[in-house]
Amino acid sequence: MTELSTTDTAAHRSPTGEDVVPTLAEFEQALVTVSAVVQPTPIESSRFLGDLLGAPVYLKCENLQRTGSYKIRGAYNRLVQLTDEEKARGVVAASAGNHAQGVAFAARELGIQSTIFMPVGVPLPKLQATRDYGARVILRGHTVSEPLEAAAQFAEETGAVLIPPFDHHDVIVGQGTLGLEIYRERPDVETVVVPIGGGGLISGIAAAIKQRAAEDGRTVRVIGVQAANAAAYPPSLTAGEPLNVPIQPTIADGIAVSRPGTRNFAIIERLVDEVVTVSDDETAKALVVLLERAKLVVEPAGAVAVAAILEGRVASSGPTVAVLSGGNIDPLLMQRVVSHGLAAAARYLTIRVPLPDRPGQLARIAELVASVNANVVEVLHTRRAPGMQINDVVLEFSVETRGPEHRELVVETLRGAGYEPRVID
Q: Which GO terms describe its molecular function (predicted)?
């Protein structure tokens, strides 16, 4: 994919012939505009990730942004552009979380009435935060597509202005202000790794940072990361056009988008150097690493850039910035994801062992596990399980381990003592 100079920003066009790449001047103006509500977020160095990559790694902590994600940038920049007559009609949006909060917050700051359609199963913290920002929230359907349809119908019936989450010029320009921040704070950056859903964030970052770097005679690589279960961009880029791709359930619900945005695709096709994918297990491991090593709470969608670095899918020989795009995670989901991440990293092991029903067996198992310095965290002891003999019991227990080698040591120690342990995935 080609680099972008400051003189050819309008060279790439949408299917309608419209110029889609915003100019550097637009991004710079937007940075001034959004500074009314946006806090410049820190860039933290990560020695752990740097050692893995073989180059300095920095984390752009947009999870610490107001409303908990970068979405406020695009939402505010879009709402500021509305005419007084449009503002009087109010705005409407559909979202399962971050876009909803960004629009609600921006609307409140500008004195605009907002209506947000959200799916019925939206996590309570996201629902309550959106309401607390002053939005009228309407729950509709069980997937993101149903609230989107409802919001479009609401806009048609009431005249409210529909605020799209990514496929709009003003939204792309607003999100791209993050790219200018990155370059301002790390002018030596060589690679930026960005989560991708519909493409609003990465299209803005790529256009902004590549134009800014070109002024200094430099190039910056931009790598996108999608959840493997919701990866519309790889096949779309291969086909040369946005495709609708069936999506599977993923913990990275914030980037689970079935079709690239039209404007976003046109920019990404030209300016993004590579798009890779990560699995849910890999994302869960990244979330645990961020908690343990960086002391940062990040939602799964916001952790995929780190997952790509952890799994060796990013190559860079110079300073690399991973964008942590959001931190809005339901505590109940956090609990499940952390457990899953520990298991995926071989840090948590569940074993089922059949035992003869006689005194001392439970104590013997505990002694064996303790002998290899594993910590038992949960135990289930039952005489009722399919296929058991009448004089047998089954012990199922979970232990904390230090990694794959320690995990195997626990299992082999039990086998060496004459037991038949079975690892439960």
A: L-serine ammonia-lyase activity; pyridoxal phosphate binding; threonine deaminase activity
Q: Is 44 helix (H, G, I), strand (E, B) or coil?
A: strand
CA distance 269 to 263: 10
Q: How far apart are CA 249 and CA 260, in angstroms?
A: 18
Q: What are 373-418's pLDDT values in tens digits?
A: 988 888 887 765 555 555 678 888 888 888 888 889 999 999 999 9
| Cα separation of the two ends of the chain | 41
pLDDT of 298 above 80: yes
Q: Long-range CB contacts (< 8 A, 24+ apart) of 244-252?
A: 250/280, 250/300, 251/227, 251/280, 251/283, 251/284, 251/300, 251/333, 251/337, 251/340, 252/195, 252/227, 252/280, 252/283, 252/300, 252/301, 252/303, 252/304
pTM of the model: 0.84
Which of helix, strand or coil describes residue 163?
coil
Q: How far apart are CA 201 and CA 208, in angstroms?
A: 11
H-state helical runs in 5-133: 24-34, 47-53, 71-80, 84-89, 98-110, 124-132
Do β-strands 320-324 and 191-195 pair in parallel, antiparallel, or remain unpaired? parallel
Q: What are phi and psi of 10, to 5 degrees?
A: -100, 15
| Res 337: pLDDT | 82
Element at 93 (helix H, strand E): strand 91-94
Place of tokens 């979970």: 398
User: Domains of the chain, with CATH numbers?
Assistant: 24-69+168-341 (3.40.50.1100), 71-162 (3.40.50.1100), 346-424 (3.30.70.260)
Residue type, 200: G
Residue 197: both structure tokens together: 């859903």
**pLDDT > 90? residue 234:** yes
User: Interhelix angle for 200-215 vs 24-34, to 10°?
Assistant: 110
Strands (E), 158-236: 161-162, 191-195, 221-227
Q: With a cut of 90, say whether residue 196 has pLDDT above it.
A: yes
The pLDDT tens digits of the residues spanning 145-180 come to 788 899 999 999 999 999 999 999 999 999 999 999
3-state class of 85 per DSSP?
Answer: helix
